[in-house]
Amino acid sequence: MSIELARDNGAPTDAERRTASPLAVRGLTVSYGQKPAVFSVDMTVRAGHMTAIIGPNGAGKSTLLKAALGIMKPLAGTVTVLGQPLAWQRDHIAYVPQRASVDWDFPTRVIDVVLMGMYGQLGLLGRVRAKHRGLAMDCLDRVGMTDFATRQIGQLSGGQQQRVFLARALAQGADLYLLDEPFAGVDAATEQAIIKVLKALRDAGKTVVAVHHDLSTVREYFDDVFLINTQAVAEGPVETTFTQENLQTAYGGRLAGAQMDALADTLVEPAVGGAPR
Fold it and tell me: Taking the model in full, what pTM does it have?
């Protein structure tokens, strides 16, 4: 005999949420040698939202992202994209890696980097036509880099390089954008330019997931938050999940009082009875 659990107010089942989610991870475990970097992690990303992955150094944030992309092979777990296996949906994903992981000495021009994002559109011969260059220039314009189209990528500043890689992601025309520390080591102007583009993607119905390190901007920049410290700590809307309790759990109580005081205006405060307000 089977028993079907009641569903409150027509709430979707876990299976239905996974099917609708642009990125759903279940039981993901990744190990470096004998030590797990990510252990049995579940994550369900909401469509059309911006999600921050946060946690202390070494918590597995970048590892989670790379494993979800198939860049790293997990020991266990499954990843679905738009309700289908990852291997079937790669054309729907755009990825911006950590700037420090890129070989910036590779001799290529800015516009050629952006055109690399169109490999799926160029066909077997890879012939670049005027329409492709026009799209590449449009993507550079969206990140404020049109004047640098013919510059060697290695000649740019860190912030400019990050903008170019975002333009390459835009050129893919993806539905899901995954970014690993997109604001690390960039100037304030570049950070604002990047967040403006990401919010425009979100407003156009795209989904954005970013590994993020600056806790003070989580509430301003993101809709949802996923906290991790090797294992998942909490996930959900910023308004209910970005709490002092969840942060201290994720960071193992290592956030100093001064840090928490600085975040006071951005954290969710518990109401009487324990519910967030």
Answer: 0.85
